[in-house]
Every structure is written in C-alpha cells, then in structure tokens.
Specification:
heterodimer, A: mainly alpha, two-stranded antiparallel sheet, B: mainly alpha, 0% strand
C-alpha cells in the first residue's frame, strides 16, 4: 500500500479523535435537552482564544470558562424557549453564532493567531505524523473515556442518561430536570473547551474558525444518530477518514465535499443515523 | 377599492425614487434592499410552511456563478446564462428535495441536510479555483460601455428598475402561493404530515413544488446580485454564512406576511450600513455583534417577526379581512 495513503489514513484517525470529542459534547446536549446548539463550534473558538491569551494556566481555565459559557447559553437562550418549536431553538443558537463570531472580531480583529508553540513532527516508517495531532488524539480518547465512565457509573450521569430516555418519569423519580440541564450544558461546554485546547495546538485561531468544524460536527452527530454517543464516536472516525483520504487523492475541499455528500446520501438511506434505532 | 390606494401611492413613489434619490449611495442601498428582499421572500415561501432550509446559499451561488462563468469563459450573455443557472438550481433542488420529502426527512434533519448542501456548494466553488478564483472570488469581465447584452450599466437607475421589477414579481409569486389551494395543503402538512397525507394531500408533490419555486427565485436573485456588484465570492454567495443570513433576515422581518422578508432586508441592510458608518473601521465586528444579539432576542421574544408583532397589536378592523394567519 502507498505509504502516503497510510499517512493520510493515520492523519484521518488522529483528526477523528478531536471530532469525536466535539460530537460527544453536542450529542450529549441534544440527547438530554433535545436542543441543537448550532453555535457549538463557536464555543470552541472562544476556548481557543482563551488558550491563546492565557497560555500558562490555559487548559484548565479554557475548559472551565467554556463550561461557564455553556451554562450561560442554556440559562439565557435555551431556558426561555424550551417549549418552542425545535427549529426556533436551533435558530436562536444560530443568532448566538453570529454574535460570538462578531464579538470575537470586535475584541481580537480578524488576524490569524497561533500560540507559537511548535511541537515536533514525528518521522515513523517514512511517514510524517504531527506530535500535536498525536497528543490531541490521545487526550480526546481519554476525555471520551472519562465522559463514558461518568455517565455510566455516577448517579448524576445515570440521571442525565435517564432524562434523555423519558423526560416525564425522571421528574417523578425525584430528579430536578432544570439542574440536570444546567449540568449537561456545562459538561457540553467543558468538552468544547477541551477540544479547543487540542485544536489550538494544530490550527491558528481566528473569529471564523468555528465554521471549519461546526458543519462537519453536526453531520457526525446526525450520522451517529442524534443523541447516540457511541454512534457519534464511530461516525467521527468515518468522516475524518473520508476527509483525509479524499484530501490525499484530490484536494482538501474535495475531501470535505465527499464527506458532506456521503452524509446526504446516508441520511436518505438511514434517516435515524447509521447506529440509530428507528 | 380604498385598499388599493396606498399600494398605488407606494408604487408611484417607488417609480419616482431614482429622481428623488439624494445620492448614488442611497440608490445603491435601495437596490441591495430590493434584491435581498426578493431573495428573503423566496426563502420565506418555504420557511413559513416549516421547511426551514439552511442551504439557500447553494441556490444563490449556483445562479450567480453559472451566469458569471458562462459570461467569462463562453462569452454567453447573462440573458441565457441566468436561465441556465436557474435551471441548474432547480435541478439541485429536485435532486436534494425529492428524496428528502419522499423519505420524510423533516425538522432538524431537513435543516442539516440543507446545511450540508450549502457547504458542498461553497467547497466546490473553492475547489474549482482554476476557473472560479477560489476563496479570492471572481469578477465578471467588464464591458467598455453600458450594455443590455452584458446586463452591465454605469447608471444605477437601470439596476434599480430591474431590481424593482424582480421584487414586485417576488411579491406577486408570494401572493399567488398564499392564496392558492397549495398553501392550505402545505399548512396542513406542516401541522401534521401523516394526517395531511391521509386526507389525500400529495405531500411530496406539494413540498417539491414550493421548493422548486423558492430555489429558482433565489438563483435569479443571486444572479442579479452578481451582475450588480460585479464580484462573486464563495463566502458571501454560498455556504453556511449567507444561508443563515437569509434565514435570519426573513425571520426578523416576519416570514408569515408578504412584506415581512422585505422589512427584514430593510432592517438588516440599513442597520448594517448605519452601524458600519457609525463605528467606521475602528470597531470591525461591532455591527454584527449588535446584529447577533438582536437576532437572539427576536427569535426568543418575537418569533413572528416585526411585521407579525405589529399586525398582532393593530385593532382587527384595520387589517384586511381574510382568514386568520397561522
């Protein structure tokens, strides 16, 4: 097999780790609160700026501050319209997307900024693999594992999963729905913050960086079955391989076009997602 | 017919506007409002029936780029290039719309499929950078003097009347759809698709028809916009950004009323220009920051838009007698 194709496959795998993390966060919010945060990738963008400006304590602060941002999004935007049609909730977070992009432009300008931390490129059997991507992949998988442990072992995690299954009964079992929503939003935000820490190692920050990850993250969630964690995790790797291998044979844009086309085609074949239950 | 009088007066004022216009800049803004008002009206034809498309950028880009590329590389007049672009947009609408409606892809899923479509359009334009100029955009070849064949005019008044005609045509289509049987059928579908099918409504055909009309009008608007500003860019004419811009303006104005999308165009363009002039270039992003906050507030507190809110506050006798709005 062509060594460069293997390299592309490997890079796809590493990209998939971070995308999987993003898909997990978004899926959590969708599965539990039943709302699509279309501005999710813009929260990642905010996190990347936090890392950029506060490099020393950056990772922790970035994760915490995006978690707080997640809380605010829920309290200020979602809570008032929980009962509205789903599409209005989606559009309200769409307004947030505009706001965050423009506010970042206002604060930081449109310059591309990078943290100036250059990690070595590993050479391995004639393949070049970026160390930053390797770290990102490792941390993303660890993060996903930690979330899985939290959701399956702890009481709060169990309550969060239960609310996604039956909203009414959970209330009767003594679970405070409002509190669960807040916790879920904060965890979703924290995952965006973690993804931001990993992405800032590889990409420059600018106000519109969210548009590079946002659409593909939604496609991944839908492919995995909206709200289905495991499905989203697997779908992330499928999509990242399509992008990476498509990029290898044609160009970066064609790789992404292929990913979107595959998404559209799969929606027609399996509207509930590859791993969703009908 | 006393209700006709205000309409006729408004039309007369619009017809006289180019000669009353204080500056070329003012006329430029009015032309932009008319073109975008037409595009937002086209979107609302689908939006008001619950078909929330986040992919109208694909139709916009198809119309503008087809006409522009055929003119630059084949020397084909936009009079032929634009209809070809519109036909291509209709083809895309059918290829995406038919399976969507047939397989009951609705709600979030429909929004996300159309979102993917917008990105496919934008990325394809960028990928074909050898002919489209990629992210840098492209400029249709200019002609030395104003020409009807090239649809290029030094005098903005030509564009004003083209845009005015297009906008009036858009309102006429909106009215036709609104008063048709199809409108009642589509309202039934948006309330309960299964029940609508059960009483004999052909769900797929009704949805597809309104989607085709909306896509064709959007492509037409995109093509005229390209002729007017003489610059095509994949970020401003295709992709998620412009698709969301269309959705928001239509909703802010009020997608359930005929003039709502136009009010949305006036609001967003005037607000954008005013904030831009006011803040100048020192506060890049300030205009859109305020715009974003307003959008969130609009969707949370007045989902029926400005026109919807005003109409609900007016005493009933001032409103034309017709069946109650949704």
């Amino acid at each position: 097999m062509d060594i460069y194709l293997v390299e592309a496959l490997l890079n796809g795998l590493l990209l998939g780790g971070v995308l999987a993390l993003l898909a997990l966060g978004l899926n959590l919010i969708f599965g539990v609160i039943d709302v699509v945060w279309i501005a999710y990738a813009e929260l990642v963008m905010c996190g990347m700026y936090v890392v950029y400006w506060l490099l020393a304590l950056a990772a922790l602060i970035a994760i915490l501050s995006v978690a707080v941002l997640g809380l605010l999004v829920h309290q200020l935007i979602i809570a008032p319209i929980l009962g509205s049609p789903a599409i209005n909730q989606l559009l309200a977070t769409g307004g947030l997307l505009f706001f965050l992009q423009s506010f970042a432009t206002l604060l930081f300008g449109t310059d591309f900024r990078n943290i100036g931390l250059r990690l070595p490129i590993l050479e391995f059997a004639d393949m070049n693999v970026s160390f930053a991507r390797l770290i990102a992949f490792g941390v993303a998988v660890l993060g996903a594992g930690a979330l899985y442990g939290f959701l399956s072992k702890s009481f709060l995690g169990t309550a969060i999963r239960a609310i996604g299954q039956d909203r009414e009964i959970v209330g009767l079992m003594g679970v405070d729905q409002r509190r669960i929503y807040l916790v879920t939003s904060a965890i979703g935000g924290a995952l965006a913050g973690l993804a931001a820490c990993l992405l800032v190692l590889q990409y420059d920050v600018h106000p519109f960086i969210g548009l590079s990850f946002g659409p593909i993250t939604f496609m991944i969630c839908v492919l995995g079955g909206l709200g289905n964690m495991l499905g989203g995790f697997v779908a992330a790797f499928i999509m990242s391989e399509i992008i990476s291998v498509g990029g290898f044979y044609f160009s970066q844009e064609i790789g992404e076009v292929l990913a979107f086309v595959v998404f559209i085609a799969l929606i027609f074949v399996r509207p509930q997602g590859i791993f969703g239950r009908s | 017919m006393s209700t006709r009088a205000p309409w006729l007066a408004g039309l007369a004022a619009l017809a006289a506007l180019p000669w009353l216009s204080p500056s070329a800049y003012f006329l430029h803004i009015v032309i932009l409002i008319l073109i975008w008002g037409f595009i937002y009206t086209a979107w609302s034809l689908m939006g008001k029936f619950g078909l929330v498309s986040l992919g109208h950028g694909a139709f916009l880009g198809t119309g503008a780029y087809t006409a522009g590329l055929l003119w630059n590389f084949a020397g084909l007049t936009p009079w032929l290039g634009i209809p070809i672009g519109v036909a291509l947009a209709v083809l895309i609408a059918v290829v995406i719309g038919y399976p969507c409606f047939r397989l009951k892809v609705v709600g979030h899923y429909f929004a996300l499929v159309t979102l993917a479509l917008a990105e496919v359009a934008r990325l394809s334009i960028v990928a074909a950078r050898d002919i489209t100029g990629g992210s840098l955009g492209m400029t249709p070849n200019g002609v030395p003097t104003s020409s009807w064949i090239a649809i290029q005019f030094a005098d903005k008044r030509y564009f004003y009347f083209l845009a005015l005609g297009l906008w009036l045509f858009g309102l006429w289509v909106w009215r036709r759809v609104d008063t048709s049987m199809a409108s009642a059928a589509l309202e039934a579908i948006s309330e309960d698709e299964g029940a609508a099918a059960a009483i004999g409504i052909h769900v797929t055909r009704q949805k597809l028809t309104v989607t085709i009309i909306s896509a064709a009008m959007t492509a037409l608007g995109g093509a005229l916009y390209g002729q007017f500003v003489m610059y095509l860019n994949p970020d401003t004419l295709a992709g998620v950004g412009v698709s969301l811009q269309i959705v928001f303006a239509a909703i802010a104005g009020g997608m359930y009323s005929m003039l709502g999308p136009t009010v949305g165009a006036v609001l967003t363009i005037v607000l954008g220009e005013a904030l831009r002039v006011w803040f100048g270039t020192t506060w890049i992003g300030a205009a859109n920051t305020i715009y974003g906050i307003l959008l969130v507030i609009f969707i949370i507190y007045m989902p029926r838009g400005i026109v919807g809110l005003v109409a609900s506050r007016l005493p009933a006798r001032l409103l034309p007698a017709r069946r109650p709005a949704l």
